[in-house]
Every structure is written in C-alpha cells, then in structure tokens.
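Morning. Coffee machine broken again, so started the prediction first thing and wrote up yesterday's gels while waiting. Chain of 487 residues, entered below exactly as on the submission form.
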Amino acid sequence: MLYLYNTLTKKKQVFKPIKDKLVGLYTCGPTVYSYAHIGNLRTYIFEDILKRVLLYQGYKVKHVMNITDVGHLTSDADTGEDKIEKAAKKTKKSAFEIAEFYTKSFFNDCKKLNILAPDIVAKATDHIKEDIELIKVLEKNNFTYQTSDGIYFDTSKLKDYGKLTGMNFKKLNETLKAGARIELSPEKKNITDFSLWKFSPKNSKRQMEWQSPWKIGFPGWHIECSVINLKYLGKAFKGKKLFPKKAQTIDIHTGGTDLIPIHHTNEIAQVEAVTNKKFVNFWLHGEFLVLKDARMGKSIGNVILIKNLEKLGFSPLAFRYLALNSHYRASLEFSLKALENAQESLNNIYNFVLDCLIDKKKTDKQRSTTLSLKKIEKEFEKSISNDLNTPKALAAFWKLIRDYYQNRNNSKEFYELALKFDKVLGLGLDKIKLITPSKKIKELVKKREQLREIKEWTKADKIRKIIEKSGFLIEDRKEGVIIKPKL
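Came back before lunch.
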C-alpha cells in the first residue's frame, strides 16, 4: 500500500485512486517570466518521484501541468504588474516571446534533471474562454462582486474557506493580515477575497488582454489552475462550455508549500463553489530549499540556476541526488559542499553500474552470501511507499552496492535490481554504457603494463594520464587490468 501525507487532512493516508489503477495528477507549473531556480526545481523533482512511484506500483498516470503565462501579479494582493508583462518591458520583447523562451528553458532544465514530461501541458493563455465561463457560473451562484479594478470572489460566502490551511475563515483572515502578506484594498470586502478577472488599466494597453462580459482585461492567477483541472482531469468542460454537475473529483494535486494559504486555497474555493463536490482527494506539498536559513526566491534575488551549477562542473543529476537525500516535506539547506558530496556519491553509483556491466561478461552463478536481494528490494519498496521516503530508499540502494562489492558475483541480478530502483530514483542508470576502447588505447594499456613490470612507475603513470585524457580510466585488479569509460 502507498501512504501519502495529505495536506488537507494533516495525516498520512492510504492512497486509493477514484478509478482503479488510473491516477489523475495535477502539478502546478511555472510562471514563465524568468528562469526556474533550483528551489523551484526541487518541487518538480519531488513531484517526479511521486509520479514514478505511482508508475512503479502499476498505476497509469494522467499527468497535467499548467503554464502560467498571464495573470500572475507581483503582489499576492492582486495588485502590481503582471510578472510577464513587466519582464517584457524590461527586455523590450513581447510578452508572448518572454513566455515562450522561459517555457522552453524550464522544460530543458527538467530534461537535464530526468523529470518525466507531463501528458498534458496547458498554457493559461489557451484557456481564456473557459476562464470566463467559470467566472460566469460563479457570478450566477452569487460568489462574486465587482470593484473598480476587477471581478472578485467573496470568500465569506464559502462556509469552509481555508480548510487546506487548517484554519477557518476568520482565523485565516487574521493570520494573513498579521503576516502583512496582503494589504486590504478599500474595495475588497475581506482580506482573503481574490480577483477572478482583472480589468486592464485605464489609459494603457496591455500586450495580453481579452474581451469579457465585464470589461477588457485578463484572468486572475488562481482561475487558470481551476479551469485546467476541471477541463482535463475533472471532465467538466465540453468544448468551452462548463457543466459543473458533471465535474469529477481529482486524485492528486501538488505544489510547493508556499501555495497552500493563497493559491491552492483559492483553487478549492472556485471549484467547490460551482460543483458542490470535493475538488481534490489528496493534496501534497514540497518544502523549501534554503540558503543559510533563508528561502530561495526570485522576489528576494537569491537564486541559483541549473546552468550555474553546470558552469561549476556539476552534473544536474547531482542536484537531483542531493534533493533525494532529503524528504520532500523537510526543508533542504543547499551548499556547494553538499552538492560536491552528492556528485561524489553519484559517481560512485555510476562506477557500481559500470562494474556490474564489466562483471556481467563473466559466467557467475553463485548466490549472494550477505543481505539477500529480495530483502533489499522489500526495504526499498517499503521506503518509497511510506510517503515517498527517498532518503531511506537511497539507504537501501547503498546496501545493494555494498553487498555487491562484498561478493562480486551475480552482477546481472544486481544490475537489474539497480535499474529497477532507478525507475523511481531517476538517476539515469540505464544510460551508463560500456565503451569499447580503441586499438590505440589498448596498445597504451599494454605498454603501461610492460613499464610496470620493469618498475618504470613514472613512465607508466604518464601513460595512465594520456589514457585518462582520452576518456578512459585504468583499474588494476587481481584478475587483471580493467578499462572503464571516464565519467
């Protein structure tokens, strides 16, 4: 059984999909006005592990991700500039060019991190008519009111507003006000009220704006995720028309922990106000990556990108390994020293895989005399099934490696189990291949051995360095010299 911590119930629960063996999974995508930093990407790694665990356990997964390419303002109070329009002005490019560029950059980083692609990627700008349709139903149900700058959702009319946070309406309003995250506009009835449709500013034309039954403008940030969920997983849209009574509850919705009090709380409000049904069964949230006790974020300017790590000589998968060493619900402190250790561990894993491939050439039918592979496999599967406990899963993987080197037999079985584990871990072990050295390299190896026999150690070492520059490593073993591709 798979146990997942549900933010909605504040406890671990046995996961059961609504439809047998078919899971609807929604992951909040990026706002594409800038590069995704490694703090953002940590969340997508956790969501990738979740998806891989579901697939590992035999489920089919329908994975939907939105792309926020309009409507995300610089303030949680529905004020300030649109982040993408602001970036467009700064770079003197169109808002659509900005969104396209950073969308491609995001998925390029995901590919480097071996994150599985969603089945459906839905841009907010492709769903404006559906946004308007949902707002019209909310308006019909008396959940909206109009101010001078837009159409707002009246949160006081939803009896369980704020349930995802564990607070009631009054407590959540008091908390947000005390935290000064949101300033109360004179026209807003409640501090928690949020925009559904923002009117374009007077005397200025936005690059991204659309006609609506109210005024020309653009959708609020929260409406897009509700619409995309209802359309692709909730099956409540037929064409552009919304049929709330036909809406289906979604299995899993994920995101960063910072999305709980506002974005995800408002998604729930919008959907349940029109469907009168539970929006999502399981809510999962990943914790922050921090730098010396400070959250990494674009708004405060302390960001590190994948390309920054690559320039320093690190593999993006070293960062993935680092992320797996911490549980997704625990904050992860980033440092270059921690990343160096992760890179070293990853290289050791790759060397283990290479050794398995080399030893597979031997005919060895002995059984392991230490921990049985079945016991290690059971430990691994128990860990990933306990709320995606990747640190313990890695510990089981390292037991597999130690067991192999203690016996150096059954390499085929060890290799196959390592690849099975990597279906969850996603470290790219299936891409590790033996490369046949050229005739020239083989001749250099032979010459080195001749020099070693006559104890010409300095000359032999020079040849070793030449071989390394050619992309190969030499290992001197009891059974002879082993030539490995350099990682």
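Residues 75 and 182 are 8 Å apart (CA to CA). Going to sketch it on the whiteboard this afternoon.
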